[in-house]
Amino acid sequence: MADLSSFPITKKWPAKNPDIIQLYSLPTPNGVKVSIALEELGLAYEPHRIEFGPDGVKSPEFISLNPNGRIPAIIDPNGPGGKPIGLFESGAILVYLAEKTGKLIPADPALRYETLSWVMFQMSGVGPMLGQFGHFYKFAADKVANNSYPTERYRDESKRLLSVLEDRLKDRPWIMGDEYTIADITTYPWVRGADIFYGGREALDYASFPSVVDWVERASARPAAQKGFDIPAKA
Ligand SMILES: N[C@@H](CCC(=O)N[C@@H](CS)C(=O)NCC(=O)O)C(=O)O
């Protein structure tokens, strides 16, 4: 049995089965990227639900795994060299899982780097911009009632990013063509989330991005997505 005692997070959220991947997450757009990938890959894993706030993501035990205090994070008891490894940042976790299994990323080196470009495009653009849009549009709307600048700035940049995706997807089913990859898995939960969590469908003018909307539907219909969207479930 793997020994995960060097990871303080396992004191607060003990592993029932330390031999399988431990997932520390919540079903948010960043969190579901990892549960969807784990489901797609058919890897065994144990989900732990980590709430926002001082008893969850900001607790010393969680911070010991992710100094940035944000879900998702994982421990793989069978990391490089057969040793346990802890990881945070959804993009890094997806690259790790794809490389560990040789799936969800093209084998061809040039296509692999192209996939990573799109993963970075999401990590630095789509997620942060749609997230800030959602903050001002929904959660802090009262704070910017007299100043539309923040909402408009992030709305317009989000729409610009959606137009980049629309262009990419207008003649291919997935970001990398016929192959469903971590570039899709990292990106579509954010486009879906801006609609279902923020109610931003009209404000972001999804009707202008039909290929993106079709792609989100196609990806969301996959059995792994249907499962991953609700993991970790509420106790
Ligand atoms: N770049 C990070 C972002 C992670 C992130 O923002 N997670 C949010 C949930 S979607 C979180 O844990 N927020 C808790 C907080 O801000 O206190 C990643 O992709 O893993």
TrEMBL record:
Residues 18-105 form the GST N-terminal domain. InterPro entries: Glutathione-S-Trfase_C-like (IPR010987), Glutathione-S-Trfase_C_sf (IPR036282), Glutathione_S-Trfase (IPR040079), Glutathione_S-Trfase_N (IPR004045), GST_C (IPR004046), Thioredoxin-like_sf (IPR036249). Pfam families: GST_C, GST_N. Gene3D superfamilies: 1.20.1050.10, Glutaredoxin. SUPFAM superfamilies: GST C-terminal domain-like, Thioredoxin-like. Residues 108-235 form the GST C-terminal domain. Belongs to the GST superfamily. This is Glutathione S-transferase C-terminal domain-containing protein.
